[in-house]
Amino acid sequence: MADTPTPRRKPKPEVTTIGGRTLKPATLMMGFGYDPVLSEGSLKPPVFLTSTFAFPSAAEGKRHFEGITGKRPGGADGLVYSRFNGPNQEILEDRLAIWDGAEDALCFSSGMTAICVLFLALCSAGDVIVHSGPLYAASEGFVAKHMSRFGVTYVDFPAGATREEIDAVLEKAKAQAAAQGGKVAMVYLESPANPTNALVDVEAVRDARDAVLGADCPIAIDNTFLGPLWQRPIDQGADLVVYSLTKYVGGHSDLVAGSVSGPERWITPIRMMRNTMGGIADPNTAWMLLRSLETVELRMTRAGENAAKVCAFLKDHPKVEGLGYLGMIEDARQQDIYERHCSGAGSTFSLFIKGGEAESFRFLDALRVAKLAVSLGGTETLASHPAAMTHLSVPEDRKAALGITDNLVRISIGIEDPDDLIADFEQALAVV
Ligand SMILES: *Cc1c(COP(=O)(O)O)cnc(C)c1O
């Protein structure tokens, strides 16, 4: 290929060190991947509302399409058409990759789009998916109800499983794949699991994968609950990191988006599938996420501190039966995983009220600062009842196995004044 080097849209290499010091993500979020000179000096990136991009020459148009169609890895090195890429999305992807310590990232129109495109890109008929359980209900449903229609089966294991248990599950999956004429396509994890907050031992999964399957089977993990601040799963051996950016990263409960980050080897086929299907985040959402990333560390730090204070108050309250909070783990193995994998306990936890559904509903209806809504990771505190809401359609026996009881209230702490939140919980518990 006779390549004429063309200037990239963004200046490379970026300034990521000063005097031998590596700049931190919080610093890089203000400018990385964007050169104001290319946009009339606009300090902030404009929102690029266009469906297509003019090529400087026919040869460059051809070259860009080689990136789009996968003839060259790494995607197009220029802008082509807004189903494939765009300036706002590319800046966002560069900045997301920084948080995860990943080679590259892809943004999507929702967390579920990211997850579905990931499965469709990496699985073929006859393959087996191994996943931890429980997963986000829509993820679990996509594997069980939809991938199965294309001849892809699954094997699952409980989030807290040990190395020996994971080994056994991978052996079982390997035999199942051989019998179906396929491969084990992926190990898909979610940690901490919702709503139990059980942690997966990613290091043990990596060691088991290396021993039983080899490196050709990627480990993907949904890091929505603790990422990007409190958990960097690539450091523990995950290959791909998945997010619902709707939650902590977006952080203001005003957008829906998702992402996948990882090495080119796995990102390239996922990018190809996204190029075909669409599902890239729109320019306005990508722009909003750039704004959100500037404060993600501040917001998550404050929310985490608030959650620690609120949980310290709730812990010994006479109307509280218990807490599922990563800052107060009672199981020694779970505590060990926490110490190896996490740098903070997050701000989403389970509150078990003394009583059942009636007592929980009374508590929820009495809250005045906290809002009664599903979702998490926003600036505002939210409370919901999984058994009656997000997990309403889950069969009773599975609910019981997952610990989704009628007295479980799910709480996502925001960035309000912590004493105001404590006052709100105090008065709502008094009504129970
Ligand atoms: C919300 C959520 C998703 C789905 O993300 P959307 O942006 O709503 O599509 C996936 N995984 C987890 C853990 C989530 O909390």
Q: How are the secondary structure elements laid out?
A:
Elements: E1 17-18, E2 21-22, H1 25-28, H2 58-68, H3 87-100, E3 104-108, H4 111-122, E4 128-133, H5 137-146, E5 153-158, H6 163-180, E6 184-190, H7 202-212, E7 219-222, E8 240-244, E9 258-262, H8 264-277, H9 283-315, E10 320-324, H10 332-341, E11 348-353, H11 357-366, E12 371-372, E13 382-384, H12 396-402, E14 408-412, H13 418-431
Parallel strand pairs: 4-5, 4-6, 6-7, 7-8, 12-13
Antiparallel strand pairs: 1-2, 3-9, 8-9, 10-11, 11-14, 13-14
Helix pairs in contact: 3-9, 4-5, 4-8, 6-7, 9-13, 11-13
Bound molecules: pyridoxal-5'-phosphate (PLP).
What is the CATH level 1 assignment of the largest domain?
Alpha Beta
Overall morphology: globular
Low-pLDDT runs of 5+ residues are 1-8
Helix/strand order, N-terminal first: EEHHHEHEHEHEHEEEHHEHEHEEHEH
The order of strands across the largest sheet is 3-9-8-7-6-4-5
Count every beta strand, where a strand is a DSSP E run of 2 or more residues: 14
CATH topology of the largest domain: Aspartate Aminotransferase, domain 2
Quaternary structure type: single chain
Structural domains: how many? 3
- Biggest beta sheet attributes: 7 strands, mixed
Intertermini distance: 72 Å
> Mind telling me the CATH superfamily name of the largest domain?
Type I PLP-dependent aspartate aminotransferase-like (Major domain)
- What is the typical, i.e. mean, pLDDT? 94
Helical/strand content category: alpha/beta
Helical fraction: 25-40%
Radius of gyration: 22 Å
What is the CATH architecture descriptor of the largest domain? Answer: 3-Layer(aba) Sandwich
H/I helix tally:
13
In terms of DSSP E residues, the strand content is 5-15%
What small molecules does the structure contain? pyridoxal-5'-phosphate
